[in-house]
Design brief:
Shape: elongated
Radius of gyration: 32 Å
CATH architecture of the largest domain: Beta Complex
Strand content: over 45%
Low-confidence stretches: none
Number of strands: 13
Structural class: alpha+beta
Oligomer: single chain
Number of helices: 4
Order of helices and strands: HEEEHEEEEEEHEHEEE
Largest sheet: 9 strands, mixed
Distance between the termini: 121 Å
C-alpha cells in the first residue's frame, strides 16, 4: 500500500523536526563547571609542598555532545616545584597546561591564583617528658618516673624543629600509674610533624629507696 501524499509530507516534516531538534539540543554550545585537581612534581622527601587550593573550577564552553563525552580522568594541572626554594609563592593558574580537547574553550577559572608553600624537612632527636592530669600530686620526692625510651626522633619542617625543645606524652592519671606501676602512653607530636619514632613510650613509677 502506497503512502498518500499527506503521509509523506508528515514523514518529511518529522525528519526535518528531528534533525533541527538534534542540532538545537546537541549542537548548541553550553557552559559547564569542571573541578580540576592540582598536583606537583617532582616528589622530594627533603621538602614539604603545600598547594592551596588543591583544585580549581573551570567554566568551559562546548557543544553538549562533547561535554558529555569529556573524560575527567586525565584532566589535571601539574606544577613543577623544582624551581622553588623554601618560601611562599603565589602563581597564576597555568590553564594552558590542561589537556582539554581543541573544541572546548575555557571561559573562566576560579580562583585565578594559587599559593605554593615550600618547607625544608629535617629530623631531630628530642627528650620526652610525661604529662600528668593533675600536677599538684607530684610534689612528693619519694618516687621516680622513668620513661623508656627517653628520646624520640621527629621528622618535620625545620621551622617546627627549631622551636621544639621537648615533646610530651598524653596526660596520664598519676594515681593510676602509682597503682599499676607501668603504663604505655602515646606521644603527642608537635603540630605539623610528619613522623615520630617511637609513637608510644613506657612510663614506669618507682618508689625511691629509703
Amino acid at each position: 500500500m502506497k503512502f498518500k501524499r499527506e503521509h509523506k509530507l508528515k514523514v518529511v516534516a518529522f525528519l526535518i523536526a528531528t534533525t533541527l531538534w538534534y542540532f538545537v539540543v546537541w549542537g548548541k554550545p553550553i557552559e559547564k563547571n569542571i573541578e580540576i585537581p592540582i598536583t606537583y612534581k617532582p616528589i622530594n622527601s627533603k621538602y614539604l609542598i603545600e598547594i592551596s587550593p588543591s583544585s580549581v573550577i573551570l567554566r568551559v564552553v562546548a557543544i553538549r555532545r562533547i561535554l558529555i563525552n569529556l573524560s575527567k580522568k586525565n584532566l589535571k594541572i601539574e606544577i613543577d616545584v623544582s624551581k622553588y626554594a623554601p618560601g611562599i609563592y603565589q602563581i597564576r593558574v597555568p590553564i594552558e597546561k590542561i589537556n582539554l580537547p581543541q573544541n572546548v574553550k575555557i571561559k573562566e577559572v576560579n580562583p585565578n591564583f594559587i599559593t605554593i608553600v615550600v618547607k625544608k624537612i629535617s629530623t631531630k632527636k628530642v627528650p620526652i617528658k610525661v604529662s600528668f592530669e593533675d600536677s599538684e600530686l607530684l610534689n612528693s620526692t619519694k618516687f621516680k618516673i622513668n620513661i623508656i625510651p627517653s628520646y624520640a626522633i621527629i621528622k618535620a619542617p625545620i621551622d617546627i624543629l627549631s622551636h621544639t625543645k621537648a615533646i610530651y606524652t598524653k596526660p596520664i592519671n598519676f594515681l593510676k600509674l602509682k597503682l599499676i606501676k607501668k603504663m604505655e602512653v602515646e606521644i603527642v607530636p608537635p603540630l605539623g610533624t610528619i613522623s615520630i619514632n617511637p609513637e608510644k613510650v613506657k612510663v614506669i613509677y618507682k618508689e625511691k629507696e629509703k
